[in-house]
Amino acid sequence: MTTHYLVLSALLFAIGGIGVLVRRNAIVVFMCVELMLNACNLAFVTFARQNGNIDGQVIAFFVMIVAAAEVVIGLAIIVTIFRTRRSASVDDASLLKY
Amino acid sequence: MITAPTIEYFALAPLLIIFGAAIIGVLVEAFAPRYLRRAVHVPLTLLSLVGAFALVILQTVRGVPTTPAAMGSVAVDGPTLFIWGTILVLSFVSVLLINDEEQFVPSAAAVPGSAEEEKAITEGAAHTEVYPLALFAIGGMLLFPASNDLLIMFVALEVMSLPLYLLCGLARRRRLLSQEASVKYFLLGAFSSAFFLYGTALLYGFAGTVDLLGIRERLAVGGGGTETLLLVGTAMLGVGLLFKIGAAPFQAWKPDVYQGAPTPITALMASGTLVAAFGAVLRVFWVALGNDSWNWEPIMWGVAALTMVAGSILAITQTDIKRMLAYSSIAHAGFLLVGVMAVGERGQNALALSGLLFYLVTYGITTVGAFAIVTLVRDPGGEAWHLSRWAGLGKRSPKLAGLFAFFLLAFAGIPLTSGFFGKYAVFRSAVALGEAWLTGLVVLAVVASAAAAFFYVRVIVLMFFSDPSADGPTVVTPSWATSTVVGFSAFATVALGVFPQPVLDLAEKAAKSLFVQ
């Protein structure tokens, strides 16, 4: 039964999505995005099993690499703004509006 | 036994040149002494763009391939070659703008206003990394519309976006705004690419492959109990793609990022990224989901209507020149989406595609020109962004204000500018479909462009019919590079407005074969 894994993946994706929307700390927001990417990976691997080909498993590796690259860029940006503002809250960064 | 994959190196050569030059740029950063870096980077970057462009022309002359390259994962077809040519020209002029030390921070790691930053400025430090980063972004832009499977498309999306997130945070002036733009762009961009990826996963579950042609074949077969996977997958994929083109309701990042980013980078994003993202939208919705158009067209209709209305109306309330241009870009994305829905039989598709390709060229060129002018009007603390600072500019430097007014009129789509023919080509194809729902949208689009014309004209009136303030902004003497960019954009905007036929023909020829299917 692969359905359970798909439900789990959808749940993880939703938790990540809600986290992005409600959390204030940029690092936590970013962790939630990573959770969403990992939910995608679970879905890919499950569908690979369901479809009987290994494309999904290969894609999961690609996604891991991309996620790693994203961490490098993301942490660099967040650390830079933290050093400037002494805060990683996304609510504080509100100079650009309207 | 495993057979080795075949790679069509000639077809992929433009991509390989750009990525190769970007990697050499990284090595230059690592090994060349500081005083030499810029001297190596500028010619390297510009020559690689010229070389890639020459290869695109050579491929067009030698005949467009009819099958996808690299084991079906990259499609180098007529529309791709046209989009590549467009992106390479726009990138070339944007890189000429990027070649301005004044725009980029001497040391991104130094806290704004700290002694460390002071030291970096007096030492004359510079982030020459912007050149390889821009090249990686341009490489991603080339791959994005050419990718023929969703995995490659996701990787290309990230290769295009990741360097741009960094580049946004590297402005020399108003660094707090720049860093904030970078964080916002990054978090929202990563969020949207997660949606893109989950959509890919669901379509993979539906079709058993991420190949666009495979999804198309699976759709043609139909049946099965997996309709939900298809619909939810399409919606999520759409969110990821529409975010990149800045369509409402995913447009919120655009004004913030366009305002905060260094202006040359804004020019690159507003032109190159938009062209690349539209190429990808077309490929996904026409090639992979073309047989499912009755499912996505109603949603796309609403998105297009909302985008053009939101862009045109919100632009009126703006007091910042870069934010206003960003909202104008949102409105233009809405107009372009009209063409995405004008699908029918083969001839109709070719008509719509050629219109879209032409619109992308005209809009991209005019945008780069407009942002190039924004870099020239300066206050003591940086560029003069506030609209009130532009009052009376026409009296103090009539040439510059005249050119800017001309670009604004081209955005508005006044006849004798390229913008008119761009809009005409897209709207004509939508009306040619002869469906009431799409013709209605064209009417809405025309009304929205009339509303948009209001705020363009407002800026022109402000520049020419109000008195300059005593402590107004200074107009710096443009460097040769900036003059070239402004001159080229103005020339192309006039030429495509008076004599558009050669480029229209080229777009038609590129669109005739449609995407490989």
From TrEMBL, chain A:
Keyword presence, Amino-acid biosynthesis: no
Catalytic activity: a quinone + NADH + 5 H(+)(in) = a quinol + NAD(+) + 4 H(+)(out)
Enzyme category, top tier: translocase
InterPro entries associated with the record: NADH_UbQ_OxRdtase_chain4L/K, NUOK/Mnh_C1-like
Example of a GO cellular component annotation carried by this entry: NADH dehydrogenase complex
Described function: NDH-1 shuttles electrons from NADH, via FMN and iron-sulfur (Fe-S) centers, to quinones in the respiratory chain. The immediate electron acceptor for the enzyme in this species is believed to be a menaquinone. Couples the redox reaction to proton translocation (for every two electrons transferred, four hydrogen ions are translocated across the cytoplasmic membrane), and thus conserves the redox energy in a proton gradient.
Assembly and binders: NDH-1 is composed of 14 different subunits. Subunits NuoA, H, J, K, L, M, N constitute the membrane sector of the complex.
Protein name: NADH-quinone oxidoreductase subunit K
UniProt source species: Herbidospora galbida
Gene: nuoK
TrEMBL record, chain B:
InterPro entries: NADH-Q_OxRdtase_suN/2, ND/Mrp_TM
Cell compartment(s), UniProt: Cell membrane; Endomembrane system; Membrane
EC class: translocase
GO biological process, alphabetically ordered: ATP synthesis coupled electron transport
Entry annotated with the keyword Transmembrane: yes
Pfam families noted in UniProt: Proton_antipo_M
Catalytic activity: a quinone + NADH + 5 H(+)(in) = a quinol + NAD(+) + 4 H(+)(out)
Annotated membrane topology: Multi-pass membrane protein
One cellular component (GO) term of this entry: endomembrane system
TM annotation in the entry: 6-28, 40-61, 81-99, 183-207, 219-243, 264-286, 298-317, 324-344, 356-377, 398-416, 436-457
GO molecular function: NADH dehydrogenase (quinone) (non-electrogenic) activity; NADH dehydrogenase (ubiquinone) activity; quinone binding
Keywords: Cell membrane, Membrane, NAD, Oxidoreductase, Quinone, Translocase, Transmembrane, Transmembrane helix, Transport
Family: Belongs to the complex I subunit 2 family.
Function: NDH-1 shuttles electrons from NADH, via FMN and iron-sulfur (Fe-S) centers, to quinones in the respiratory chain. The immediate electron acceptor for the enzyme in this species is believed to be a menaquinone. Couples the redox reaction to proton translocation (for every two electrons transferred, four hydrogen ions are translocated across the cytoplasmic membrane), and thus conserves the redox energy in a proton gradient.
Subunit structure: NDH-1 is composed of 14 different subunits. Subunits NuoA, H, J, K, L, M, N constitute the membrane sector of the complex.
Protein name: NADH-quinone oxidoreductase subunit N
